[in-house]
Write a structure and sequence with these properties.
Elements lengths: L5 E2 L11 E7 L3 H15 L3 E3 L8 E6 L4 H23 L5 E5 H7 L1 H6 L5 E3 L7 H9 L4 E3 L7 H4 L5 H6 L3 E5 L1 E2 L10 H4 L4 E2 L2 H13 L4 E5 L7 E3 L5 E3 H9 L6 E5 L8 H9 L6 E3 L7 H6 L6 H14 L4 E8 L6 H14 L3 E6 L17 H26 L3 E9 L5 E5 L5 E5 L8 E9 L4 E5 L3
Parallel strand pairs: 2-3, 2-4, 4-5, 5-6, 6-7, 8-11, 11-14, 15-16, 16-17, 20-22
Antiparallel strand pairs: 1-2, 9-10, 12-13, 18-19, 18-21, 19-20, 21-22
Helix pairs in contact: 10-11, 11-13, 14-15
This protein binds S-adenosyl-L-homocysteine, iron/sulfur cluster (SF4) and FE3-S4 cluster (F3S).
The site of S-adenosyl-L-homocysteine has 18 residues, from strand 16.
Length: 464
Protein backbone atom coordinates (compact mmCIF):
# COMPACT_ATOMS: atom_id res chain seq x y z
CA UNK A 1 0.00 0.00 0.00
CA UNK A 2 1.18 3.45 -0.80
CA UNK A 3 -0.62 6.42 0.48
CA UNK A 4 -1.50 9.05 -2.03
CA UNK A 5 -4.33 11.47 -1.65
CA UNK A 6 -6.44 11.41 -4.74
CA UNK A 7 -9.67 12.92 -5.79
CA UNK A 8 -12.29 10.92 -7.55
CA UNK A 9 -13.08 12.60 -10.80
CA UNK A 10 -14.78 9.74 -12.59
CA UNK A 11 -17.49 10.93 -14.89
CA UNK A 12 -20.97 9.50 -15.08
CA UNK A 13 -24.02 9.72 -17.23
CA UNK A 14 -25.96 12.72 -15.97
CA UNK A 15 -29.36 11.84 -14.55
CA UNK A 16 -32.12 14.37 -14.42
CA UNK A 17 -32.92 15.33 -10.87
CA UNK A 18 -29.63 13.82 -9.77
CA UNK A 19 -27.65 14.73 -6.70
CA UNK A 20 -23.91 15.21 -6.75
CA UNK A 21 -21.25 13.50 -4.69
CA UNK A 22 -17.71 14.65 -4.07
CA UNK A 23 -15.41 11.94 -2.74
CA UNK A 24 -12.00 12.76 -1.32
CA UNK A 25 -9.74 9.77 -0.85
CA UNK A 26 -6.87 9.62 1.62
CA UNK A 27 -4.50 6.75 2.30
CA UNK A 28 -3.67 3.65 0.34
CA UNK A 29 -4.79 2.08 -2.94
CA UNK A 30 -7.36 0.02 -1.07
CA UNK A 31 -9.14 3.24 -0.22
CA UNK A 32 -8.92 4.30 -3.87
CA UNK A 33 -10.60 1.03 -4.84
CA UNK A 34 -13.24 1.44 -2.11
CA UNK A 35 -14.00 4.97 -3.29
CA UNK A 36 -14.76 3.73 -6.80
CA UNK A 37 -17.00 1.00 -5.42
CA UNK A 38 -18.84 3.51 -3.22
CA UNK A 39 -19.17 5.86 -6.17
CA UNK A 40 -20.72 3.05 -8.25
CA UNK A 41 -23.13 2.12 -5.43
CA UNK A 42 -24.16 5.77 -5.09
CA UNK A 43 -24.66 6.13 -8.85
CA UNK A 44 -27.50 3.63 -8.57
CA UNK A 45 -29.16 6.00 -6.13
CA UNK A 46 -28.83 8.91 -8.53
CA UNK A 47 -25.62 10.46 -7.22
CA UNK A 48 -23.43 11.82 -9.97
CA UNK A 49 -19.71 12.33 -9.17
CA UNK A 50 -18.30 15.85 -9.14
CA UNK A 51 -14.71 17.05 -8.70
CA UNK A 52 -15.86 20.27 -7.03
CA UNK A 53 -16.93 20.11 -3.35
CA UNK A 54 -18.85 23.39 -3.79
CA UNK A 55 -21.08 21.63 -6.27
CA UNK A 56 -21.83 18.61 -4.04
CA UNK A 57 -24.94 17.55 -2.14
CA UNK A 58 -22.89 14.83 -0.49
CA UNK A 59 -19.26 15.17 0.57
CA UNK A 60 -17.61 11.91 1.47
CA UNK A 61 -14.14 11.69 3.03
CA UNK A 62 -12.58 8.26 2.66
CA UNK A 63 -10.00 8.44 5.40
CA UNK A 64 -6.68 6.97 6.56
CA UNK A 65 -5.53 6.36 10.12
CA UNK A 66 -2.04 5.02 9.49
CA UNK A 67 -0.08 7.95 10.92
CA UNK A 68 -1.12 10.79 13.19
CA UNK A 69 -0.80 13.33 10.38
CA UNK A 70 -3.15 11.36 8.17
CA UNK A 71 -5.84 11.30 10.85
CA UNK A 72 -5.35 14.99 11.74
CA UNK A 73 -5.94 16.00 8.11
CA UNK A 74 -9.46 14.62 8.35
CA UNK A 75 -10.43 16.80 11.29
CA UNK A 76 -9.07 19.95 9.69
CA UNK A 77 -10.95 19.12 6.48
CA UNK A 78 -14.11 18.55 8.55
CA UNK A 79 -13.65 22.03 10.06
CA UNK A 80 -13.67 23.54 6.55
CA UNK A 81 -16.67 21.46 5.55
CA UNK A 82 -18.62 22.60 8.61
CA UNK A 83 -18.31 26.20 7.39
CA UNK A 84 -19.31 25.24 3.88
CA UNK A 85 -22.32 23.30 5.13
CA UNK A 86 -23.49 26.32 7.15
CA UNK A 87 -23.06 28.65 4.21
CA UNK A 88 -24.97 26.30 1.88
CA UNK A 89 -27.77 25.87 4.40
CA UNK A 90 -28.14 29.66 4.32
CA UNK A 91 -28.56 29.36 0.54
CA UNK A 92 -31.25 26.72 1.07
CA UNK A 93 -29.14 23.71 0.05
CA UNK A 94 -28.65 20.80 2.45
CA UNK A 95 -25.23 19.22 2.24
CA UNK A 96 -24.70 15.78 3.78
CA UNK A 97 -21.25 15.01 5.13
CA UNK A 98 -19.99 11.45 5.45
CA UNK A 99 -16.78 9.99 6.86
CA UNK A 100 -15.74 6.56 5.58
CA UNK A 101 -12.56 4.49 5.81
CA UNK A 102 -10.09 3.80 8.58
CA UNK A 103 -10.59 6.91 10.74
CA UNK A 104 -14.32 6.13 10.69
CA UNK A 105 -13.59 2.60 11.87
CA UNK A 106 -11.10 3.67 14.54
CA UNK A 107 -13.02 6.61 15.98
CA UNK A 108 -16.70 5.91 15.25
CA UNK A 109 -18.98 7.94 17.56
CA UNK A 110 -16.06 10.17 18.55
CA UNK A 111 -16.24 11.76 15.07
CA UNK A 112 -19.86 12.80 15.66
CA UNK A 113 -18.87 14.32 19.00
CA UNK A 114 -15.89 16.23 17.64
CA UNK A 115 -17.47 17.25 14.34
CA UNK A 116 -21.12 18.26 14.65
CA UNK A 117 -21.40 18.74 10.88
CA UNK A 118 -20.90 15.02 10.17
CA UNK A 119 -24.08 13.09 9.33
CA UNK A 120 -22.76 9.61 8.52
CA UNK A 121 -19.78 7.58 9.76
CA UNK A 122 -19.29 4.35 7.89
CA UNK A 123 -16.50 1.78 8.25
CA UNK A 124 -14.56 0.02 5.47
CA UNK A 125 -16.48 -3.22 6.06
CA UNK A 126 -19.94 -1.70 5.79
CA UNK A 127 -19.80 0.72 2.89
CA UNK A 128 -22.27 -1.38 0.90
CA UNK A 129 -24.80 -0.02 3.42
CA UNK A 130 -23.91 3.59 2.62
CA UNK A 131 -26.95 4.29 0.40
CA UNK A 132 -29.25 3.22 3.23
CA UNK A 133 -27.33 5.25 5.81
CA UNK A 134 -27.69 8.28 3.54
CA UNK A 135 -31.44 7.82 3.23
CA UNK A 136 -31.67 7.91 7.01
CA UNK A 137 -29.35 10.92 7.19
CA UNK A 138 -31.60 12.81 4.80
CA UNK A 139 -34.38 12.30 7.32
CA UNK A 140 -32.25 13.95 9.99
CA UNK A 141 -30.66 10.95 11.72
CA UNK A 142 -26.94 10.82 12.46
CA UNK A 143 -25.63 7.36 11.61
CA UNK A 144 -22.59 5.38 12.76
CA UNK A 145 -22.16 2.01 11.07
CA UNK A 146 -18.79 0.47 11.85
CA UNK A 147 -19.75 -3.15 12.51
CA UNK A 148 -17.69 -5.86 10.98
CA UNK A 149 -20.57 -6.94 8.75
CA UNK A 150 -21.22 -10.67 8.54
CA UNK A 151 -22.43 -10.49 4.95
CA UNK A 152 -19.87 -10.12 2.18
CA UNK A 153 -19.94 -6.49 1.13
CA UNK A 154 -18.64 -7.31 -2.33
CA UNK A 155 -21.66 -9.54 -3.01
CA UNK A 156 -23.88 -6.59 -2.09
CA UNK A 157 -22.21 -3.97 -4.24
CA UNK A 158 -23.32 -3.34 -7.82
CA UNK A 159 -20.87 -4.07 -10.64
CA UNK A 160 -19.61 -0.94 -12.37
CA UNK A 161 -21.01 -0.09 -15.78
CA UNK A 162 -18.53 -0.62 -18.65
CA UNK A 163 -18.62 3.06 -19.63
CA UNK A 164 -17.58 4.03 -16.11
CA UNK A 165 -14.76 1.49 -15.99
CA UNK A 166 -13.56 2.75 -19.37
CA UNK A 167 -13.62 6.36 -18.17
CA UNK A 168 -11.29 5.42 -15.32
CA UNK A 169 -8.59 4.26 -17.70
CA UNK A 170 -6.79 1.17 -18.91
CA UNK A 171 -5.30 0.23 -15.53
CA UNK A 172 -7.42 -0.81 -12.57
CA UNK A 173 -7.24 -1.96 -8.98
CA UNK A 174 -8.98 -5.10 -7.77
CA UNK A 175 -9.11 -5.84 -4.05
CA UNK A 176 -8.68 -9.58 -3.45
CA UNK A 177 -7.85 -9.61 0.25
CA UNK A 178 -8.62 -7.37 3.18
CA UNK A 179 -7.54 -7.00 6.74
CA UNK A 180 -4.48 -8.20 8.58
CA UNK A 181 -3.64 -10.77 11.25
CA UNK A 182 0.03 -9.84 11.56
CA UNK A 183 -0.19 -7.22 14.33
CA UNK A 184 3.05 -5.38 13.75
CA UNK A 185 3.43 -3.38 16.94
CA UNK A 186 3.37 0.04 15.22
CA UNK A 187 0.35 -0.53 12.98
CA UNK A 188 -3.36 0.27 13.18
CA UNK A 189 -4.46 -1.78 10.17
CA UNK A 190 -5.47 -4.95 12.10
CA UNK A 191 -7.78 -2.72 14.18
CA UNK A 192 -9.20 -0.59 11.37
CA UNK A 193 -9.60 -3.29 8.74
CA UNK A 194 -10.20 -6.32 10.92
CA UNK A 195 -8.86 -9.82 10.41
CA UNK A 196 -7.71 -11.29 7.11
CA UNK A 197 -10.44 -12.14 4.62
CA UNK A 198 -9.89 -13.42 1.07
CA UNK A 199 -12.42 -12.95 -1.71
CA UNK A 200 -13.32 -16.20 -3.50
CA UNK A 201 -11.72 -17.07 -6.85
CA UNK A 202 -14.96 -16.91 -8.88
CA UNK A 203 -15.69 -13.38 -7.66
CA UNK A 204 -12.20 -12.17 -8.49
CA UNK A 205 -12.14 -13.79 -11.94
CA UNK A 206 -15.58 -12.38 -12.76
CA UNK A 207 -14.50 -8.88 -11.75
CA UNK A 208 -11.27 -9.16 -13.73
CA UNK A 209 -13.24 -10.30 -16.81
CA UNK A 210 -15.61 -7.34 -16.46
CA UNK A 211 -12.70 -4.93 -16.22
CA UNK A 212 -11.03 -6.41 -19.28
CA UNK A 213 -14.26 -6.43 -21.29
CA UNK A 214 -14.50 -2.68 -20.61
CA UNK A 215 -10.98 -2.07 -21.94
CA UNK A 216 -8.71 -2.51 -18.91
CA UNK A 217 -5.28 -3.95 -19.87
CA UNK A 218 -3.49 -3.98 -16.51
CA UNK A 219 -4.88 -5.06 -13.14
CA UNK A 220 -3.22 -4.56 -9.77
CA UNK A 221 -4.50 -6.98 -7.14
CA UNK A 222 -4.79 -5.30 -3.78
CA UNK A 223 -4.69 -6.39 -0.17
CA UNK A 224 -3.31 -5.05 3.09
CA UNK A 225 -1.38 -8.31 2.94
CA UNK A 226 -2.16 -9.34 -0.57
CA UNK A 227 0.06 -12.41 -0.57
CA UNK A 228 -1.78 -13.79 2.45
CA UNK A 229 -4.67 -14.30 0.01
CA UNK A 230 -5.82 -17.92 -0.08
CA UNK A 231 -8.67 -19.67 -1.79
CA UNK A 232 -9.89 -22.87 -3.39
CA UNK A 233 -9.20 -24.04 -6.95
CA UNK A 234 -11.70 -25.83 -9.22
CA UNK A 235 -10.83 -29.29 -7.85
CA UNK A 236 -11.19 -28.15 -4.26
CA UNK A 237 -7.44 -27.73 -3.86
CA UNK A 238 -5.92 -24.98 -1.72
CA UNK A 239 -4.74 -21.97 -3.71
CA UNK A 240 -2.32 -19.24 -2.73
CA UNK A 241 -1.80 -15.92 -4.50
CA UNK A 242 0.60 -17.55 -6.98
CA UNK A 243 -2.17 -19.90 -8.16
CA UNK A 244 -4.58 -17.00 -8.50
CA UNK A 245 -2.07 -15.13 -10.67
CA UNK A 246 -1.68 -18.17 -12.95
CA UNK A 247 -5.47 -18.27 -13.30
CA UNK A 248 -5.80 -14.55 -14.02
CA UNK A 249 -2.97 -14.67 -16.56
CA UNK A 250 -5.35 -16.86 -18.62
CA UNK A 251 -8.05 -14.18 -18.82
CA UNK A 252 -8.06 -13.29 -22.55
CA UNK A 253 -7.12 -9.66 -23.18
CA UNK A 254 -5.57 -9.10 -19.75
CA UNK A 255 -2.03 -8.04 -20.64
CA UNK A 256 -0.51 -7.18 -17.30
CA UNK A 257 -0.81 -8.16 -13.64
CA UNK A 258 0.63 -6.68 -10.48
CA UNK A 259 -0.10 -7.09 -6.79
CA UNK A 260 0.52 -4.99 -3.69
CA UNK A 261 1.38 -4.92 -0.79
CA UNK A 262 3.07 -8.10 0.23
CA UNK A 263 4.57 -9.30 3.47
CA UNK A 264 7.93 -11.11 3.37
CA UNK A 265 6.49 -13.96 5.46
CA UNK A 266 3.91 -14.78 2.78
CA UNK A 267 6.18 -14.98 -0.28
CA UNK A 268 5.76 -18.70 -1.00
CA UNK A 269 7.44 -20.83 -3.71
CA UNK A 270 4.44 -20.74 -6.01
CA UNK A 271 4.41 -16.95 -5.97
CA UNK A 272 8.13 -16.76 -6.66
CA UNK A 273 7.69 -19.27 -9.50
CA UNK A 274 4.94 -17.06 -10.96
CA UNK A 275 7.46 -14.22 -11.19
CA UNK A 276 9.74 -16.46 -13.21
CA UNK A 277 7.09 -17.94 -15.51
CA UNK A 278 4.22 -15.54 -16.08
CA UNK A 279 4.84 -13.05 -18.84
CA UNK A 280 1.84 -11.02 -17.68
CA UNK A 281 3.20 -10.61 -14.16
CA UNK A 282 5.18 -7.39 -14.20
CA UNK A 283 8.73 -7.34 -12.78
CA UNK A 284 8.03 -5.04 -9.86
CA UNK A 285 7.59 -6.08 -6.26
CA UNK A 286 6.67 -3.92 -3.29
CA UNK A 287 8.02 -5.84 -0.33
CA UNK A 288 8.26 -3.68 2.79
CA UNK A 289 10.92 -4.47 5.38
CA UNK A 290 10.54 -1.42 7.71
CA UNK A 291 13.93 -1.74 9.39
CA UNK A 292 17.34 -3.38 9.02
CA UNK A 293 18.22 -4.36 12.59
CA UNK A 294 17.04 -7.72 13.91
CA UNK A 295 16.27 -6.37 17.37
CA UNK A 296 14.02 -3.68 15.88
CA UNK A 297 12.36 -6.15 13.51
CA UNK A 298 11.59 -8.35 16.48
CA UNK A 299 10.22 -5.45 18.53
CA UNK A 300 8.07 -4.55 15.52
CA UNK A 301 6.80 -8.14 15.43
CA UNK A 302 7.75 -8.49 11.76
CA UNK A 303 8.67 -12.12 12.44
CA UNK A 304 11.69 -12.34 10.14
CA UNK A 305 15.33 -11.24 10.31
CA UNK A 306 17.17 -8.86 7.99
CA UNK A 307 19.12 -11.79 6.61
CA UNK A 308 15.95 -13.78 5.84
CA UNK A 309 14.64 -10.77 3.93
CA UNK A 310 17.85 -10.45 1.91
CA UNK A 311 17.92 -14.19 1.10
CA UNK A 312 14.29 -13.97 0.00
CA UNK A 313 15.10 -11.16 -2.43
CA UNK A 314 17.99 -13.23 -3.75
CA UNK A 315 15.55 -16.06 -4.55
CA UNK A 316 13.09 -13.70 -6.20
CA UNK A 317 15.88 -12.20 -8.31
CA UNK A 318 17.01 -15.67 -9.34
CA UNK A 319 13.47 -16.31 -10.63
CA UNK A 320 13.16 -12.87 -12.26
CA UNK A 321 16.53 -11.11 -12.65
CA UNK A 322 15.12 -7.80 -13.91
CA UNK A 323 12.67 -7.38 -11.02
CA UNK A 324 12.50 -3.88 -9.53
CA UNK A 325 12.20 -3.86 -5.75
CA UNK A 326 10.19 -1.35 -3.76
CA UNK A 327 10.06 -1.03 0.01
CA UNK A 328 8.64 0.78 3.02
CA UNK A 329 10.69 1.99 5.99
CA UNK A 330 10.01 3.37 9.41
CA UNK A 331 12.73 5.35 11.19
CA UNK A 332 12.74 6.02 14.91
CA UNK A 333 10.76 3.05 16.15
CA UNK A 334 10.91 3.22 20.00
CA UNK A 335 14.37 2.25 21.21
CA UNK A 336 16.02 2.41 17.77
CA UNK A 337 19.69 3.29 18.36
CA UNK A 338 22.05 5.08 15.95
CA UNK A 339 23.71 1.74 15.30
CA UNK A 340 20.39 0.09 14.50
CA UNK A 341 19.51 2.87 12.10
CA UNK A 342 22.86 2.25 10.35
CA UNK A 343 21.70 -1.36 9.89
CA UNK A 344 18.72 -0.04 7.93
CA UNK A 345 21.05 2.06 5.74
CA UNK A 346 23.22 -1.00 5.13
CA UNK A 347 20.24 -3.14 4.17
CA UNK A 348 19.12 -0.49 1.69
CA UNK A 349 22.64 -0.38 0.19
CA UNK A 350 22.50 -4.12 -0.25
CA UNK A 351 19.02 -4.36 -1.81
CA UNK A 352 19.20 -1.35 -4.18
CA UNK A 353 15.56 -0.25 -4.38
CA UNK A 354 13.92 1.14 -7.49
CA UNK A 355 11.25 2.86 -5.40
CA UNK A 356 10.61 3.36 -1.70
CA UNK A 357 8.37 4.98 0.87
CA UNK A 358 9.80 6.01 4.22
CA UNK A 359 8.24 7.49 7.31
CA UNK A 360 9.03 8.74 10.78
CA UNK A 361 7.52 6.43 13.36
CA UNK A 362 4.16 7.79 14.45
CA UNK A 363 2.74 6.64 17.78
CA UNK A 364 -0.71 5.19 17.23
CA UNK A 365 -3.10 4.93 20.17
CA UNK A 366 -4.14 1.37 20.90
CA UNK A 367 -1.10 -0.28 19.29
CA UNK A 368 1.53 -2.04 21.47
CA UNK A 369 4.19 0.41 20.20
CA UNK A 370 2.41 3.27 21.95
CA UNK A 371 3.22 1.75 25.35
CA UNK A 372 6.94 1.33 24.68
CA UNK A 373 9.46 3.41 26.61
CA UNK A 374 12.35 5.09 24.78
CA UNK A 375 10.34 7.01 22.20
CA UNK A 376 12.92 8.52 19.82
CA UNK A 377 13.02 12.36 19.85
CA UNK A 378 11.47 14.10 16.84
CA UNK A 379 14.75 15.75 15.70
CA UNK A 380 16.48 12.41 15.72
CA UNK A 381 13.73 10.88 13.60
CA UNK A 382 13.90 13.81 11.18
CA UNK A 383 17.68 13.47 10.85
CA UNK A 384 17.43 9.75 10.15
CA UNK A 385 14.62 10.20 7.68
CA UNK A 386 16.63 12.82 5.75
CA UNK A 387 19.60 10.51 5.43
CA UNK A 388 17.50 7.51 4.47
CA UNK A 389 15.46 9.43 1.92
CA UNK A 390 18.61 10.86 0.32
CA UNK A 391 19.92 7.33 -0.14
CA UNK A 392 16.62 5.97 -1.46
CA UNK A 393 16.23 8.88 -3.86
CA UNK A 394 19.73 8.27 -5.17
CA UNK A 395 18.85 4.61 -5.74
CA UNK A 396 15.66 5.51 -7.60
CA UNK A 397 17.65 7.87 -9.82
CA UNK A 398 20.28 5.21 -10.45
CA UNK A 399 17.60 2.70 -11.33
CA UNK A 400 15.96 5.12 -13.76
CA UNK A 401 19.35 5.97 -15.32
CA UNK A 402 20.04 2.27 -15.81
CA UNK A 403 16.90 2.12 -17.98
CA UNK A 404 18.15 4.68 -20.52
CA UNK A 405 18.82 2.98 -23.85
CA UNK A 406 16.62 -0.03 -23.06
CA UNK A 407 13.89 -1.24 -25.42
CA UNK A 408 10.74 -1.85 -23.43
CA UNK A 409 7.01 -2.55 -23.76
CA UNK A 410 5.01 0.51 -22.84
CA UNK A 411 1.32 0.46 -21.93
CA UNK A 412 -0.12 3.73 -23.24
CA UNK A 413 -2.25 5.14 -20.43
CA UNK A 414 -3.33 8.76 -20.76
CA UNK A 415 -2.68 12.03 -22.59
CA UNK A 416 0.59 13.72 -21.61
CA UNK A 417 1.13 17.38 -20.80
CA UNK A 418 2.35 18.24 -24.30
CA UNK A 419 0.03 17.83 -27.27
CA UNK A 420 0.97 14.72 -29.23
CA UNK A 421 2.41 13.05 -26.12
CA UNK A 422 1.03 10.10 -24.24
CA UNK A 423 2.06 8.91 -20.79
CA UNK A 424 2.66 5.22 -20.57
CA UNK A 425 3.59 2.79 -17.83
CA UNK A 426 6.77 0.74 -17.98
CA UNK A 427 6.99 -2.82 -16.68
CA UNK A 428 8.77 -1.32 -13.63
CA UNK A 429 5.90 1.06 -12.90
CA UNK A 430 7.66 4.18 -14.19
CA UNK A 431 5.73 6.91 -16.01
CA UNK A 432 7.13 7.33 -19.51
CA UNK A 433 6.40 10.15 -21.99
CA UNK A 434 6.30 9.21 -25.65
CA UNK A 435 4.96 10.67 -28.91
CA UNK A 436 1.79 8.75 -29.74
CA UNK A 437 -1.83 9.29 -30.70
CA UNK A 438 -4.67 9.44 -28.18
CA UNK A 439 -6.38 6.69 -30.18
CA UNK A 440 -3.50 4.39 -29.18
CA UNK A 441 -4.31 4.55 -25.45
CA UNK A 442 -4.64 0.98 -24.22
CA UNK A 443 -2.07 -0.35 -26.71
CA UNK A 444 1.26 -1.78 -25.66
CA UNK A 445 4.01 -0.47 -27.92
CA UNK A 446 7.76 -0.95 -28.18
CA UNK A 447 9.78 2.10 -27.21
CA UNK A 448 13.37 2.97 -26.40
CA UNK A 449 14.02 4.94 -23.19
CA UNK A 450 15.94 8.09 -24.16
CA UNK A 451 16.22 10.05 -20.94
CA UNK A 452 14.99 10.78 -17.46
CA UNK A 453 13.11 13.75 -16.01
CA UNK A 454 12.18 14.55 -12.41
CA UNK A 455 9.17 12.27 -12.07
CA UNK A 456 9.08 10.46 -15.37
CA UNK A 457 11.14 9.08 -18.23
CA UNK A 458 11.22 9.93 -21.93
CA UNK A 459 11.09 7.46 -24.77
CA UNK A 460 10.93 7.23 -28.57
CA UNK A 461 8.59 4.83 -30.31
CA UNK A 462 10.19 1.97 -32.23
CA UNK A 463 8.62 0.64 -35.44
CA UNK A 464 6.34 -2.40 -35.14
N1 LIG B 1 0.86 -4.35 5.05
C1 LIG B 1 1.99 -3.64 4.65
C2 LIG B 1 1.98 -2.14 4.96
C3 LIG B 1 0.80 -1.46 5.51
S1 LIG B 1 0.86 0.21 6.06
C4 LIG B 1 3.20 -4.31 5.27
O1 LIG B 1 3.11 -5.13 6.12
O2 LIG B 1 4.30 -3.95 4.92
C5 LIG B 1 1.88 1.05 4.89
C6 LIG B 1 3.16 1.55 5.48
O3 LIG B 1 2.94 2.58 6.41
C7 LIG B 1 3.93 0.52 6.25
O4 LIG B 1 4.66 -0.32 5.41
C8 LIG B 1 4.80 1.35 7.15
O5 LIG B 1 6.02 1.63 6.54
C9 LIG B 1 4.00 2.62 7.33
N2 LIG B 1 3.45 2.70 8.68
C10 LIG B 1 2.52 1.92 9.25
N3 LIG B 1 2.30 2.28 10.54
C11 LIG B 1 3.13 3.31 10.78
C12 LIG B 1 3.38 4.11 11.94
N4 LIG B 1 2.77 3.89 13.09
N5 LIG B 1 4.31 5.10 11.83
C13 LIG B 1 4.96 5.31 10.67
N6 LIG B 1 4.76 4.59 9.56
C14 LIG B 1 3.85 3.60 9.61
FE1 LIG C 1 0.27 -3.35 9.42
FE2 LIG C 1 2.04 -5.25 9.78
FE3 LIG C 1 -0.39 -5.85 8.94
FE4 LIG C 1 1.30 -4.60 7.31
S1 LIG C 1 1.55 -6.68 8.15
S2 LIG C 1 -0.85 -4.11 7.64
S3 LIG C 1 2.41 -3.28 8.71
S4 LIG C 1 0.14 -5.04 10.93
FE1 LIG D 1 -4.63 4.09 5.75
FE2 LIG D 1 -6.49 2.30 6.21
FE3 LIG D 1 -5.01 2.15 4.03
S1 LIG D 1 -5.17 3.20 7.72
S2 LIG D 1 -3.07 3.02 4.66
S3 LIG D 1 -6.42 3.74 4.50
S4 LIG D 1 -5.76 0.46 5.25
Amino acid sequence: MTDQTTINEASATPLSNSRKVYIKTYGCQMNVYDSTRMSDALARDGYEPTSDPEDADLVLLNTCHIREKAADKVYSELGRLRDMKKRKAGEGRDVVIGVAGCVAQAEGEEILRRSPAVDVVIGPQTYHRLPEALRKARQGERIVDTDYAIEDKFEHLPAAEPTKIRARGVTAFLTVQEGCDKFCTFCVVPYTRGSEVSRPVHQIVAEAEQLVAAGVREITLLGQNVNAWHGTGPKGEAWSLGDLLYRLADVPGLARLRYTTSHPRDMDDRLIAAHGELRALMPYLHLPVQAGADRVLKAMNRRHTADEYLRLIERIREARPDIAMAGDFIVGFPGETDQEFEDTMRLVEEVRYAQAYSFKYSTRPGTPGADLKDQVPEEKKAERLDRLQALLLKQTREFNESCVGKKIDLLLEKPGRMPGQIIGRSPWLQSVNVDAKASQIGEIIKVRITGIGTNSLFAEPLGA
